[in-house]
Specification:
36% strand; 14-stranded parallel beta sheet; 896 residues; mainly beta; 4 helices
Length: 896
């Protein structure tokens, strides 16, 4: 528990000496007619604990002062849920306590046991639940012996390969996931003929599918099946269109009940069919009858200690507008369906979840919200010293901890085995510290151990990520085949995330890179240790004002900025002095304000890059004073910058002097046919030949609607760098032209064509002559943009203005001696003072990344990371200690 909260409870304890204190007991063998007190030793059994929690609650309501309810060990069925309200509150001096008696284990279930099982066939049992309190309740969960059982399904669950096995794969035409497809809907699933099934009640069957992007799943009912076209139509739309090779299975048909653990509910006869994986007598069978087991609705100063919650359709515990409540040393397990959360805290303040074990949750393990974004008033809710694992069992977007609002904290937690993120957050001023996150992102792609977005421009400014140990963030996705590790990061700052401080973290072994700033702004990343990224070690990939993401989200960002820009609390927030409409630099790049310094970056994989950057301005983002070590190998960046010119000028007729005046210059042609005749021609300008291009924008066309002038074919070499230069001016005060090298192969005889254009290519011209120069590198075999037919290229000049004239002269295209990849990164503005040297970890082969006293990182200003404080700690309020970790994912749990 945080020291401040410890002090509060200590003071409250001593204050109790001046207050009345009352205690009651509840036991499964109790009686609500009794007094709720423990009987005296050797007394006759005529009095004792209450039998129900509801009666205990009602009795406690009538009392004042310190009140304690102690639960004896055993099962407590709460079939309709238990609600505590404002009248059940305590005070700071006298909180209300509901706790386990001594070291006994009371278990609250949000449902009922199912008994009276009879044989059916093939090892399948049946039970009539209409007489057991379930009639009319369509439950989607069944627990046996403390484990969630799978609905009858096809294909069957594969316990030997729980993440990569047990799937069918959609049929149809393959289509790139990030490319839209015209006419596509979200309720059509093409299946392979071998996966077509026949069911007596197809309307009860559901499709469990991860559509298109493999980000999340949907569970949608079947509407119809067309066997002739192998098409399943769903009764509800999925989040994204269902495409070829998407993973799915069918569930909820009696005909599919053929594997141990599977079950089916007959909603007409209210009979459950179950094939137990062990003798039915060996454990209880439970099914939920209520959404939430315990709700604190507007309740203050209530503490729960040492209780176990299990079996609920939605959540175990909900705190709705509750304040100053504590959940201490509790266990939450096997709750939540597709929608739901283990423990859900909404809108309240100063609520703490401390020392709890939370596992096998259908959705999120814990969700915290609250606080005021207008005033940046913190909610002060927190999750501390918890052990969280196996979440997102049914909802693959489910995470360990979900934060929203202002001022929540996650600290000293151990989180592992998540399908997607470990910690996901939105809002502002959160703290993620001293957590151990491992084996994250086991079932989805484009994912991180921690994840945030900034599409409103103001999120998640003020958040701190410090002193966390993150490792083995795998990711699972499609790259010609289903693979893992794939497309994952340790710390993922997605979609314009802004204003974070990230320091003192150790991030090891992630599928793609260890940290990603996706058009991040105003983030400070310092004093971290990054080890063994999969494809590269870190990346900060920016956007330009023409990027589709920027164009689509700009209205949302402007709205977010304007909603708080003039509020007092936001005046001092870092980066809020520049609105989104004014963030672009002269080349339209919008990523700015990031600082990446005093970090240690170390990796062995000879194929992995040091870094990756896109649309990066080295003068507006500071990346320096870091330590890199690639085991003595060169540092690759996939950046190519031209060095000294080594070849002759390959541009034909470079000054446009050849050919008659007022005609198209020799060796140059109009690639497009503008509306104006003679739109491009050779002229004299100030006594010098120049190419003259008239604006001729055609609004009736959607493409090729402005003049494009190209040279004759020029032979260029793959993998070679060139310097492209021209002098340009316009008769306009300010306009945009284009200067590039292009390759074009037209489709022919059913074979696809190929198009490539060098980038950057935009030239911002004025009415004064200016020199424009771009580095051009022709893709080599295997690189993005390469095609085997790429031999002949053309220089291209674009004039897309709607009025005015563009003048061009002094064209040159010459081969250059390339800088090596690290020099190219430094030429872009990065790591001028960084060092390339062994950091001298104590024992990296044992994941011990402490630094030796002689480490060269110390002179850079690196500070020690308090690794001894990371993860859970011993406490009377821990549900279990020492923590015995559940079996987690292996390093590579999925088929390669």
């Amino acid at each position: 528990m945080h020291p401040t909260h410890c002090l509060r409870f200590i003071l409250a304890f001593f204050a109790l000496g001046h207050l009345s204190a009352s205690e009651w007991f509840v036991a499964p063998s109790g009686d609500d007619k009794w007094s709720g007190k423990l009987p005296q030793a050797n007394a006759e059994k005529t009095d004792g604990p209450f039998a129900t929690l509801e009666h205990a609650r009602d009795t406690v309501r009538a009392e004042k002062g310190q009140r304690t309810v102690r639960l004896r060990g055993g099962i407590y069925s709460v079939p309709n849920g238990l609600v505590l309200e404002a009248q059940d509150s305590g005070t700071a001096e006298a909180p209300v306590l509901w706790e386990a008696f001594e070291k006994e284990q009371p278990v609250l279930i949000g449902g009922r046991p199912i008994t009276d099982w009879k044989p059916w066939k093939d090892g399948i049992l049946q039970a009539d639940v209409s007489v057991q309190g379930f009639k009319g309740i369509v439950f989607k969960q069944l627990l046996f012996n403390g484990n969630r059982q799978p609905l009858a399904r096809y294909p069957n669950f594969d316990p030997q390969n729980p993440y990569g096995g047990g799937w069918a794969y959609a049929g149809g035409e393959m289509w790139p996931p990030y490319t839209d497809k015209e006419g596509e809907d979200k309720h059509t699933l093409k299946v392979k003929t071998s996966d077509l099934r026949k069911w007596a009640r197809p309307e009860e069957v559901e499709v469990f599918i991860l559509p298109r992007f493999n980000w999340r799943n949907d569970i949608v009912p079947v509407k119809s099946i067309d066997a002739g076209t192998a098409t399943v139509t769903t009764a509800q739309d999925t989040t994204f269109a269902m495409r070829a090779n998407d993973r799915f299975f069918f569930q909820g048909a009696l005909e599919e009940l053929d594997a141990p653990g599977e079950w089916y509910l007959d909603r007409e006869a209210w009979t459950v069919y179950f094939k137990p994986p062990a003798p039915i007598e060996s454990g209880a069978v439970l099914a939920p009858t209520t959404r939430d087991i315990l709700t604190l609705n507007g309740t203050d100063y209530v503490t729960l200690r040492g209780l176990t919650f299990e079996c609920a359709a939605r959540s175990a515990i909900v705190l709705a507008k509750a304040n100053h409540c504590r959940i201490l040393g509790c266990t939450v397990r096997n709750v939540s369906g597709y929608l739901g959360t283990g423990i859900n805290v909404t809108e309240g303040t100063d609520n703490g979840i401390v020392g709890c074990d939370i596992h096998h949750i259908g959705g999120d393990a814990v969700a915290l919200s609250g606080g005021d974004r207008q005033t940046l008033t913190a909610a002060g809710n927190f999750v501390d010293n918890c052990y969280i694992h196996h979440v997102g069992v049914l909802y693959k977007q489910g995470v360990g901890v979900l934060l929203d609002g202002v001022g929540q904290r996650v600290s000293h937690c151990l989180i592992h085995d998540t399908p997607r993120f470990g910690i996901m957050f939105a809002g502002n001023n959160h703290v993620l510290e001293y957590n151990h996150l491992r084996h994250i992102a086991l079932e989805t792609q484009d994912v991180g151990a921690t994840y945030c977005r900034g599409l409103d421009w103001i999120s998640p400014r003020g958040t701190v990520i410090r002193y966390n140990y993150i490792h083995d963030v795998l990711g699972y996705g499609w790259n010609g085949k289903w693979i893992s590790p794939y497309f994952s990061w340790g710390i993922y700052l997605d979609d314009n995330s802004s204003g974070l401080d990230i320091f003192g973290n150790i991030v090891v072994r992630c599928g793609r890179a260890l940290i990603h700033g996706h058009n991040a702004h105003d983030c400070r990343v310092f004093n971290n240790i990054f080890v063994e990224g999969g494809e590269r070690q870190w990346e900060f990939n920016g956007w330009t004002v023409k990027h589709g993401f920027w164009v689509r989200t700009l209205p949302q960002m402007v709205q977010g900025y304007e909603s708080v820009a003039n509020l007092p609390a936001w005046k001092s927030v870092r980066g809020m002095d520049v609105p989104p409409l004014k963030i672009a630099d002269s080349e339209g790049r919008v990523m700015a304000g990031n600082i990446f310094t005093r970090n240690i970056i170390s990796w062995k994989n000879p194929e992995a890059n040091a870094l990756n950057v896109l649309s990066f301005n080295g003068t507006r983002n500071q990346f320096d004073y870091n330590l890199y070590w690639h085991g003595g190998l060169p540092l690759k960046t996939s950046l190519w910058m031209p060095g000294k010119v080594t070849g002759r000028n390959l541009a034909p007729n470079p000054n446009f002097a050849e050919g008659p005046l007022n005609k198209m210059p020799k060796d140059w042609n109009l690639q497009t046919k503008p509306k104006t005749d003679n739109a491009a021609r050779n002229v004299m300008d100030g006594g010098k030949h120049a190419l003259h291009i008239d604006a001729s924008f055609d609004h009736e066309k959607t493409s090729n609607n402005f003049p494009i002038v190209t040279s004759r074919d020029i032979e260029l070499k793959p993998g070679t760098s060139y310097r492209l230069h021209a002098r340009l001016r316009s008769d306009q005060a300010e306009a945009k032209a284009g200067l590039a090298v292009q390759f074009f192969l037209a489709p022919k005889d059913g074979q696809p064509g190929h198009y490539w254009l060098s980038s950057p290519s935009e030239a911002k011209v004025t009415n004064a002559w200016q020199d424009f120069e771009f580095a051009v590198r022709i893709p080599a075999k295997g690189e993005t943009g390469w095609h085997e037919s790429m031999k002949l290229f053309r220089i291209r000049i674009d004039w897309s203005a709607e009025q005015g004239v563009l003048f061009a002269t002094d064209l040159s295209l010459a081969e250059t001696a390339p800088l090596d990849e690290w020099q190219a990164w430094q030429a872009l503005g990065g790591d001028h003072h960084s060092v390339i040297v062994d950091p001298k970890f104590v024992a990296p082969e044992k994941d011990d990344y402490r630094l030796a006293p002689t480490s060269p990182a110390w002179p850079l200003g690196f500070k020690p990371i308090p690794t001894e404080k990371i993860g859970p700690y011993a406490s009377p309020d821990r549900a279990s200690w020492p923590i015995v970790e559940a079996e987690g994912a292996r390093e590579h749990p999925l088929p390669q």
